[in-house]
Amino acid sequence: MTKYINMFGGIQPVPFLRNKYDIYELFVESCIELLEDEQREGNELEKWTKITNYKKIFTDARLQSKRRIIDGEPGYGKSTLALQITQDWCRKESPMTKFDVLILLRLRELRNAPTIYSAIRKFLLPKDTTLTEDDIKGILNSSSTVILLDGYDEYPERGNKNTDIEHIISENMFQQHEVILMTRTSCLPTDFSRDTKRIRLTGFDDAARDRYIRNVVARGDYDRADEIHRFFRENPVSDDFSKIPLFFVMISQMVQRNQKFQNLNTVTEFFRHVVRCFHSHEEIRAGHHEKKGELDHTKLDRIAFEGLSGNSQELSWKKKDLKCKIGHNLYLEYVRIGFLIEEDYFDYDALEYKTETRFCHKLFAEWFAAQYLAKQIARPNVNFKQTNKTQHDFLKSLNPHDVHYMYRYACGLNPEAAVKIIEHLGKSRDYDEYTLLCISEWGGNLEKVSSTVFRLCLRNIKIKNTDSLLLRTSTVELIKFASSQKIPLCCVELLNCLDLASLLTTNLPLKSPDLSLPVMTTLKKLVILEDGLEITEGGTHGMLDYTSKCHALQELEFHWCIFPRYVQVAESLSALLLRGVKVYTDDGRRLPERGEPVPS
């Protein structure tokens, strides 16, 4: 219990601030969803359903299982949630009272640990404990136990099927215990039990952001809370970050300390400003009255890039080795600033504690790695043809799902690199979202990447309600460009993102400020999915009037939409049918012609 109290009692929400807080002072729930049983991975229409709070993980009947996976993007609060659950158990709060034992292991610490029992003994028990591994095994076997495995994406032996951790995940070990695995969405285990329940963190919504500002940052100061709220309203780009708890916490704390974020339109501009804030705060703390020049971090950039490359990422290094590679001065400076963090770990081979160093967060590793990537890709002799094997392998070593911020930073840092990265990503339909985000970072003329635009338009273009504002905006700009240049659009899918209250306008309005789709004159197929939302008669007419103006349209599909039972059908539907446009609901039935009831 002492180990856990130290864990959740010494949290630094912003690396360069030395203040530490208890988890109960900082914890604000992000949105949580569960994957419905009848939907499995790979389904285009995966059914994710919101649950009201994190305690439902243990009480919701749909999540009853011995195995659960909680995934989320970097910075979405997986580790914070693990600490909150642990604190609930320590305080004997429901529903954690049903467990006699709670085990929380940070998997990045389990380098070469021979067994999970040795890891528990080494990392959770006092150094002078008399308990043996057999004792620990006996206690677990005779107790109601829940095991939290935090950071599978940072586990040094991820994928090694012979480890206890992998046996636990596949339910070949600890079948009687409840196990929760925390990992990044891009690093799900490949061999988890069929009975495993999937849960994901989707970040802060408006209510969570408001709670954090009022309860954690402003602490009753309404004027300060209004100032922070005003910042987020006046800076639309912040939408991309404010859903990510880590970024939202950083921005709120910096705004609260009068460190202004103005005219920031991209992820790159934002993160560059964050880095400057780290530097300026250290200068103030150290008493420097003049701005210091930034030290050369080229060697660290390359180390970060190489650490993020390949299937087995290396995101921590032995302290002595890293200091030797990047230089004593830079190492000490970045530890002081907060970019780098030192941690002690137990070396099972040497049977002693050693110190390793890592970035304060993976998103910072991607920032420094992007400096190296941008410089390399911008070189004139670099291209991505198969004949240039060296450069092909250079990018092939990166998994865009795992390092998309690195790609985005690089595109914002160097326009020449951006064009090549966009062309590279655009060759695979698996990376369409990242291609669009990179286009947003770049901000250049789409004619320079026309071949990529053509490829994107030949695929299904999706706009979802869960997309960030930057992604939605970039997608709309692509569609506008395609329409203006008469580039055929194969299919556009709109998933829970229509502003149905404004459907009587000329354009197709989206649930975003000042964002709408123009008439898509080259569109062949439009799919509209509104999850159980009732569409009024006016909304029905609005959608049909809009689609009747899409002159190349061949198919119109509605999924999960609830139409009025009877509608006085407008001429727009007749016009669509006369052109041979196929109009269907999700059960395969067509919409009615004039005077017929609409299927309910």
From TrEMBL:
Highest taxon of the lineage: Eukaryota
InterPro entries xrefs: NACHT_NTPase, P-loop_NTPase
Pfam families linked: NACHT
Ranges for domain NACHT: 69-216
UniProt name for this protein: NLR family CARD domain-containing protein 4
Organism: Holothuria leucospilota
